[in-house]
Design a protein that fits this description.
The protein is globular. It contains 9 helices and 21 strands. Among the domains are: 2-58, no CATH class; 177-262, Trypsin-like serine proteases (Thrombin, subunit H); 277-370, PDZ domain (Pdz3 Domain). By secondary structure, it is α+β, with helices and mostly antiparallel strands. The strands form 4 sheets. A 7-stranded antiparallel sheet has the order 5-4-1-2-3-7-6. Strands 8-9-10-13-12-11 form a 6-stranded antiparallel β-barrel.
Length: 377
Amino acid sequence: MKRLWLIFSQTATVLLAAYFVVATLKPQWLGHGPGSSSSALALVEAQATGQVPPGSLRVAAQKASAAVVSISTSQAAKKNPNANEPWFKFFYGDQGEEAKGGLGSGVIVSQSGYILTNNHVVDGADDIEVILNDSRHTRARVMGTDPDSDLAVLKIDMDKLPTIVLGDSDSIQVGDQVLAIGNPFGVGQTVTGGIVSALGRNQLGINTFENFIQTDAAINPGNSGGALVDTNGHLLGINTAIYSRSGGSMGIGFAIPVSTAKLVLEGLVKDGRVTRGWIGVEPNDLSPELAETFGTKQTEGVIITGVLQNGPAAKAGVKPGDVIEAIGERKISDVTQLLSVVASLKPGTAAHFTIHRKSQTVELDVTPGVRPRPKAN
């Protein structure tokens, strides 16, 4: 019996030693990616030596926090055009000019100095200052904005910039642990923890294209533009909005997935704008009233109530009353989904539409154009 126990203990020791050697020198043999293996191994080693308590997300927080910045903006005061009129001064007095300031957060995504943040953080700003986690600060310039997704890209010129690793927002699931990092209320960089509460949140009236990650990690004013990261410290999303009755966190926060942010980043850096597909229709969610008005018995899909003359859809044969059921292999269930799918289409390349018209199914190839830029308010 003692001999068997001795053989077992020696075998277990050899296997454990071999595992640590392979994990250190050839982590890819164990199926770990290059980004996650180093942080996971560091966490295992730190826990083994007692430096990190079990279950701690310290390594992920430290890894991601270095690339999260605070953003301070200022906007010159706009003088009332009637300020010098005697009657205006009599009723309103001298109107002093006061500059407006704002606070937000951002994430360094490139050694070249590109920073992802929210469009509403820098919108209308005349001066933008970025403060790094190591206390360095510098002026930033806007490389481009995308109001439709509420994202913006800034550029700073500094050496030895820490950058965040872009994660995979398409693979996350409800219940996964996440961290939110930013500068709430200007108190300084803060890390909060929670889980992914829901995926694919839309119809919130925040952006044109909505596909939010919902989290219960505390997000407050000033967190906008900051990072939502996974347990490896990899970027999953850009914190954007909260649901609140008091102005503070109530456990319902929303982040733009990094998959969307990457497309916007590439478009703004390369072309100065984001190119999206557009077909020129007025869509509505299918309701019994609309179905009766247009004489369709269809119960699923998006009904087209208007078609722009000479637009891409009109040229392809789309008519008012048509119900779009699918684009390619993707089923269409509501207007938000239709907008997102059409926006992802490549302008100039035909896409296959499955349409229900009256009592028959019609197959059409629609060649999308370039979505017009939104008009400035």
